[in-house]
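Methods — Computational structure assignment.
A single polypeptide chain was analysed. Its primary sequence is given first, followed by the predicted tertiary structure written as structure tokens.
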Amino acid sequence: MEIDFAPFLSILIACEENVPSDYEFLGKEIRNLISSASQGLDHGDLIDINLGVIGSFTFPFFRYRTLTSLDLFSPEDLFLFSRYYRHYPKINNFIDVGMNIGLHSIVARNIGYSVVGFEPDLETFTLSKKFFYENNIEFVELDDKVVFGNHVKKPGELLLAQAAVSDFNGYTKFTKVLDNPTANHLSGRKMNVYGDLHEQTVRVVSIDQLNFEAVIKIDAEGEDVKILKSLLNSENISGMIYLCDWRIETRQDIFDLLSKNSSSCYNPFSGKQLENIDDLPLSKSCDFIEVKVS
């Protein structure tokens, strides 16, 4: 099966700043396409995905408790891909915090970025490596002594680290949600966690080792405040942060932190700077915000 997202992505890329006026209609069309395609697929099937100028690749179909892996191509994610496309080649490094099975990493790599992807869960990390193998994409797996340094230099290079990201180096407890890996998180970072859980120890890498300009995607399931604070306080980091899918547990703290840098924070869904906490709605109507660091 092939799923063609190229027409939608081309419209989003063509937007000068914000979502197009017919974004709500486009979103409905994208969700209908995903729903229709999901009906004829079994867990483990492979799908050919076409993203137009961002390229094509084979993608695994997984069924989770209430979602499928195709939901990773939501209208908000496609819009986010268009933002990545816009920043390249002015910025040519990409950091994927919360890589999951690697979709954002492969998109950034196809655009031309040098990519470092972080995923703490061994099972999900293994699936991401399989994903890259199936698409004949070479990668280097970073060991526990090498993370950022001067390694992100070659165009299109892909570096992978089985690690969580926070404001410290070391190890901590990690909670796996067995029937919904998209909800995995560092232990204690989320409230109201449902399903069968398993706790394990994972490696943690401090984000302040970053010392070059990059586009940074953060989907850290509750660890976002610590990561943001480190990035905003660093003297060595520049580029664009995309904060995705914040939690109710950290929403107020995120707003308090970003309101001090409100001129650098932008909500492309509303088309305005961060002004009040309502600019961080807990819904898919605003799935990410931009934070410029320099």
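Note: The chain has one domain: 75-293.
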